[in-house]
Amino acid sequence: xxxxxxxxxxxxxxxxxxxxxxxxxxFLNCLWQYVLISKNISRTLPKCSYCGYKGEFCFEGxxxxxxxxxxxxxxxxxxxxxxxxxxxxxxxxYIHNMEPTKLFKDMVYSAPKPQTKEYIDCLLYTSDAxxxxxxx
Length: 136
Description:
The chain has 4 helices and 8 strands, in the order ββαβββββαβαα. By secondary structure, it is of the alpha+beta class. Strands 1-7-6-3 form a 4-stranded mixed beta sheet. A two-stranded antiparallel ribbon has the order 2-8. Strand 4 (57-61) and strand 5 (64-68) form a beta hairpin. The longest helix is centred in the C-terminal third of the chain and has 19 residues, at 117-135. Residues 131-136 have low confidence and may be disordered.
């Protein structure tokens, strides 16, 4: 499985800057499952490159509260790729009404959901493959 890292400079793979859209609650609820298990990778205060706000971005859903901005979500797609996506993308979609690309929507809807054996196996397989590449 190939790993695709998404950063601020290539976020256009996943979102389009349009403000006229209604929130897609089905998509946001589906994405929230990945946000909840995102892995924090930094201790700095996150900054939104769109509105310039710097600080904590907290959201609540499915009985949980989650701070976003310093985490990475792992979302597999159907083309044998694992996307590493900053969790601040949830802020862009929810607060700024940015629209997810078709690629991103299809990925989130069709990917194995967190807490399923298929999702865990996918991450373990990717981790093992990465370890093999490093050790060779």
